[in-house]
Design a protein that fits this description.
Elements: H1 2-11, E1 22-27, H2 30-46, E2 59-65, H3 71-74, H4 78-90, H5 97-119, H6 124-142, H7 164-170, H8 173-179, H9 191-197, H10 206-214, E3 227-231
Parallel strand pairs: 1-2, 2-3
Helix pairs in contact: 2-10, 5-6
């Protein structure tokens, strides 16, 4: 939120001049941070008339693509993807019968752990959910070597795609100079940063989306709703 404040009001005010509108988009894990960021802007805008620290940002919409927003709902359907949907598209399941059985058998405990995590984000349930849900629902598919983003393809490279040219480009001195950053080694995925995000992996962010869609506000009953686009594929 504070980055957007400085970026749009101090560094590049021209971006929100002339009635330009602000849309916040995210994909994948952005199903967490895009709704959270948009909702923070949404809340602070309601207070912008009474608190000078909260400068108004012209938020008009939120978009989430293939996002992890409500793990309790979404984790129930990995087995549908690996079984029924793969059969419809490819003519056969993406995993074998033993894997389908394991996914089905492990799902109830996974959902219990997710609920426990939502109730106590700092509790043991979050650790159990990461172990039970990801091992039981994600790994059977990952072990097949199929692309986790496109079931029609096999994985190539650490993140299922060959990003070698991107890595080379991002590590060019002239590229990093253009970004205004000190010389450093850029990687396509920093696993230490990735690990830090795991703490709220199973948190539920769909209430933020509903709040903005409905225009609900404890501070201002006349707050307008925000357009939201959820897309998958």
């Amino acid at each position: 939120y504070w980055f957007l404040q400085d970026f749009l009001h101090i560094v590049h005010p021209e971006f929100i001049a002339n009635n330009n509108e602000l849309f916040i988009f995210g994909e994948s894990y952005g199903g967490h941070y895009a709704p959270a960021t948009a909702h923070k802007v949404y809340q602070r805008n309601q207070q912008s008339n009474t608190n000078p620290d909260y400068k108004y940002l012209p938020l008009e919409g939120l978009g989430v693509g293939n996002g992890l927003t409500d793990p309790y709902i979404q984790y129930q359907h990995y087995i549908d993807l690996a079984g029924d949907w793969c059969t419809q598209v490819l003519g056969e399941p993406c995993v074998n019968e033993a894997s389908l059985w394991m996914m089905n058998a492990s799902l109830p405990s996974c959902l219990i752990d997710i609920q426990a995590c939502v109730l106590d984000p700092n509790g043991l349930g979050c650790l159990l959910a990461r172990a039970a849900c990801n091992a039981g629902q994600l790994m059977p598919y990952q072990f097949t070597g199929k692309n986790v983003y496109d079931i029609r393809k096999q994985c190539v490279g650490e993140l299922c795609y060959d990003l070698g040219k991107v890595v080379d480009f991002m590590n060019l001195p002239e590229t990093q100079q253009a970004f205004g950053v000190p010389q450093q080694t850029w990687s396509s995925c920093n696993m230490l940063v990735n690990l830090a995000f795991m703490a709220d992996w199973f948190a539920n962010f769909d209430t933020y989306v509903a709040d903005m869609l409905n225009g609900a506000s404890a501070l201002n009953s006349t707050t307008k709703s925000i357009r939201v686009m959820i897309y998958a594929g």
